[in-house]
Amino acid sequence: MKLFDSTNLYYILFAVLTYIIVGLAFYLVVEHVIYQEVEDRLTVERRDFENFIQTHGMWDESCYFVENKIELDTAGNLPATYAVFKDTLLYNRYSNEYVPFREHSFISTIGKTQYKVSIRKSLIESIKLLQSITGTMLIVLSIGLLLLFLFQRRIARTIWEPFYATLASAKAFDLNEGRGLALRKEKIFEFNELNSVLRKMTDKIARDYMSLKEFTENAAHEIQTPLALINSRVEELIQQSNFTDEQMRWIQNIHESSIRLSRLHQALLLLSKIDNGQFFEHTAIDFHKRITTKLQELEEFIAHKSLTVTVTPQASFEVEMNPALADILVTNLLTNAIRHNLPNGRIDITITATTVAVANTGAPLTTDPDRLFERFKKQRQSSASLGLGLAIVKKICDNYPLDIHYHYDNSLHTLTLHKTT
Questions:
Q1: What CA–CA distance (Å, rounded) separates 235 from 47?
Q2: Which residue ranges run through the membrane (predicted)?
């Protein structure tokens, strides 16, 4: 959820809660005021009644309007101080329904007899007034809250506009342009500070990236040249026959080390290029076709170990990625399955719409499976492997909607590519 929407959600929840509480409180307060006014009028009528009784010594209903509903009843065992206010319902013969009244009951002595006197006053008009006042207040409050919400939303959009502009610039930031973000100066202090920090940070990132890219390109050229020269000179020395067996063994070791160093240089250079995002071209890669082609190229290595390869394409597995990196990804997975396989072993490749699983027979791992994709991690330190093949595979997957997992079961090592989106 966006920050703006989240803020509005809290605002709406708070406003609705406040609206309910204020509406309920207003209703109760107005109801109390109306009831107080009705009770005051009933109290006045009680005084008029008592004055009439004191003056005439009797009660004559003709001196009161019939709507006031004064009723006398025997007091019974009620104390002389009895006086209560309560709500009651009386039947209206004109509307054929019960209507609400407020009743004040008290004890009064007429002559020598005590009576329970009940004075009632209709609440219909009071209730209608209460409903009208409350309804009007709620409507006005609702309109006020709506206008306040719209105003707040408009103001918030205006205030946060510089932030979204900065965010859009950050999303469009491209290291290959060789410069930081070009952000405008804002009137709001906090956004201006944010833009200033982002400008400095992206400028430094761009400079560091260009320096690293230049170093990588120079290293690729300057290191590869002497390595090629060493390899060629060592190969010329190997062709000669005027060396002792021990000297020839030294030369052979130098040759193997120079080849290993050249491979290591190429692998580290590839990792650096992937990290720097130097592979720009993207196209839809059909992994079934790539795997089939690569298996044909590796036929000699497969035949050398007498391996049985089974490919089961259940569906098409396609990913938008760089073709060169796709080739490296497939090559490393297959060569890993060949190199670490057993003689007369097998390789099972299963392709679905969302996964590519490469399983191979082999001895159980002696290293931690969780560290299998780290650089320079390999099954045996004496192995000719550089320990970078799966690290390169993991790095390629991290740059695309791919994930890779390792699983060992029933003497099969399985590396599985998963689509993450």
A1: 130
A2: 9-30, 129-151
- Spatial distance between the Cα atoms of 416 and 350, rounded to a whole number of angstroms: 9
Question: Which candidate, 393, 353, 361, places its Cα nearest to that of 374?
Answer: 393
In this prediction, residue 92 has a pLDDT band, given cuts at 50, 70 and 90, of confident
Helix, strand, or coil here: 20? helix
Query: Residues 102, 89: contact at Cβ < 8 Å?
Result: no
Contact 347, 358 (CB under 8 A): yes
Which tokens sit at 31?
A: 């109801």
The structure's pTM equals: 0.48
Tell me the residue type at 48: D
pLDDT (average), residues 202-207: 85
Contact 120, 102 (CB under 8 A): yes
17-31, 46-60, 65-79: segment of lowest average pLDDT: 65-79
Q: Which amino acid is at 355?
A: T
Average pLDDT over residues 105-134: 83
